[in-house]
Amino acid sequence: MRHIISILLENESGALSRVAGLFSARAYNIESLTVAPTEDPSLSRMTLVTSGSAEIIEQITKQLNKLVDVVKLNDLNVSQLQHIEREMMLIKVKAPVSARDEIMRLSGIFRGNIIDVTDDAYTVELTGTSDKLNAFIASFDCDSILETVRSGVMGISRGSSALHL
Amino acid sequence: MELSGAEIIAQFLEDEGVEYLFGYPGGAVLHIYDALLRADSVKHILVRHEQAAAHAADGYARSTGKTGVALVTSGPGMTNAVTGIATAYLDSIPLVVLTGQVPTGVIGSDAFQEVDSVGISRPCVKHNFLVNDVKDLAETLKKAFYVASTGRPGPVVVDIPKDVTDPNIKIPYTHLSSIEMRSYNPVTKGHPFQIKKALELMLRAKKPVFYTGGGVVLSNASSSLRSLVRQLGFPITSTLMGLGAYPSSDEQFLGMLGMHGTYEANMAMHDTDVLIAVGARFDDRVTGHLEKFCPTAKIIHIDIDPSSISKTVKVHIPIVGDVDDVLTTMLEMLKDSEDKVEQSKCDQELKDWWKQIKQWRKKNCLRYNKKTKTIKPQYVIEKLHEITEGDAYITSDVGQHQMFAAQYYGFDKPRRWINSGGLGTMGFGLPAAMGVQLAHLDKTVACVTGEGSIQMNIQELATCMQYQLPIKIINLNNRYLGMVRQWQEFFYEGRYAMSYMDSIPDFVKLAESYGHVGMKIDQTSDVEDALKEAFAMKDKLVFMDFITNREENVYPMISAGKGHHEMELAPDSELV
Lengths: 165, 576
Prior knowledge:
The complex is a heterodimer.
Chain A: E1 2-10, H1 15-25, E2 32-37, E3 43-51, H2 54-66, E4 70-75, E5 83-94, H3 97-109, E6 113-117, E7 121-128, H4 130-138, E8 145-150, E9 154-157
Antiparallel strand pairs in A: 1-3, 1-4, 2-3, 5-7, 5-8, 5-9, 6-7
Chain B: E1 2-4, H1 5-15, E2 20-23, H2 30-36, E3 43-46, H3 50-64, E4 68-72, H4 76-90, E5 95-101, H5 117-121, E6 127-130, H6 137-149, E7 155-161, E8 170-172, H7 192-204, E9 208-212, H8 214-218, H9 222-232, E10 236-238, E11 253-256, H10 263-271, E12 274-278, H11 284-287, E13 298-303, E14 317-320, H12 323-336, H13 338-346, H14 348-361, H15 377-387, E15 393-396, H16 400-408, E16 417-418, H17 429-439, E17 445-450, H18 460-466, E18 472-477, H19 482-491, H20 507-513, E19 517-521, H21 524-536, E20 542-547
Parallel strand pairs in B: 2-3, 2-4, 4-5, 5-7, 6-7, 9-10, 9-12, 10-11, 12-13, 13-14, 15-16, 15-17, 17-18, 18-20, 19-20
Antiparallel strand pairs in B: 1-8
Helix pairs in contact in B: 1-2, 1-6, 3-4, 3-17, 7-12, 9-12, 10-14, 15-16, 15-21
């Protein structure tokens, strides 16, 4: 099963490689991983998407907790609370005059923003669940996509409960 | 007080009460070595290879419970130490390894003797640090010692660039008496509810067995374990790493379990209904085939590391906490249920269980033919036990001799059996013995080894001479890489690929060339006298080269894919 694990870790050089190294050394899956400093610059927030059996997920969270740089973590899929997940994508598509209306219409339907326009290409910014981003990609034919870049999933729990110190 | 980085390291080690620093100098650590000359209370032991520095610090740590400390230079100094660091990691030994690094300004430029020490060591340390600024040095060192020695212990590497130790840059220094880390708070107290639940299950058990491991030794829980096991009257078996935590001469002790464990221990594991795992991690050498492991047991697991629990074997009652703390709590709770304890002890079912165990014991699975002219390795170990009165510190290397030592020495005290269990590092025994001997100058220390393993760190004979370490080396020389040969005999139809060592040195001459005493013993009838003679030489290292039976096998044995009940005993022809 797919799990989203939110991790608060020390914003120190090497912290990311400890997490990545743990996953490769123990042959765990990483589907996506995103990390950036928080409002407290000494801490980074990482969202990691992985998958595996219940036993493997349990080991993953235990092993992550064991890393000295990990301050706190939360498996968003096992906590009692519901969560929200978002991913952001920038997608650059070919934009010949004949296709521009359709691109703009699709962007509108998916609540995307066109953030760069040139003679031959449009770049759309889109935020949502991974499924939504996949659906947006699927609505173009492969040849018309020049480039995609995705942030990886970020997750947060609903309500006032929060992963903080 | 204003100190340079190098002086801070020297002063810190003194302030931390470090007795011995095992190391080898080199370019990146020269400032540190210069400062160490003035650190009177820290004795530096100059090894002959950095791997030995880590192993010696490790042996010191295992035999004392204190943190072992090593110092090596950058690049090859650090990479040589990696095997020693990994050895400590797999057996959860508290170690702080200080590694020199090229100056911060040239890190990443493939400078002379530069390697990414933090990157290389990352998968085999509990934690590591790169010190970028001399201002962080004292605090980082304090953190390193704290992390290494608390929770589930382990090695910590501190990588120190040369410019951080610059003698010309001085900063104020004070020794921190303690440190807190927001991201590191090991749990020590077990949950009382879980402990109670476990105890209730234990008191209802019909066929209970304790299965104890290295965690009991690490947690100094030997005495609480003894009290608990004796009060309950349950049988107990130990892993390789836990030997000595419970006295092996005690009636309730079933011997070691696992791949080369005793018949009674493994059969008890297979039939038990309540398994009490204490500071053990269900290693594959212990469990055998997982699907056949303890098929009828409810399992209680006490461990300080949550990730050890239900890692390979599903546990019914987990207790996360320091082993000694949990066992002590259990003992206190037992006081309140004394009636139940008495009841459980008199219980017919427990009596029947012991009756069954005694039946298994009758197999006498460790017997061997003592009447051969060629020396049986088992016999040497039994005699070693006799002559040292079972009270020596025994280090070992890895292979058949290690198993013979574990099976036949009969450890009655914790921290007396020093071996590389998890990583299985050949070459561990001699340098580890140096650390043990230094920690216990007036005690008997013997290194049980083989002609394969001993050659992996034979250069340390020079270190032993320099520091006058009177280690007794028991070399069980069968002219084969014995364990490899045994597997080739069993599983490769006797094709002995590369397990024969041609051109084995004359160990007597070799020992003598280093200034030690060498002895060669090749007949059973000479073993006892030779051992007596060697151990009488209190102030000398004696290298005893025992020419043993070539194709001796370690029995009992559980082959790959087999369960505990499917173990093989020595064929009758060998037992006579």
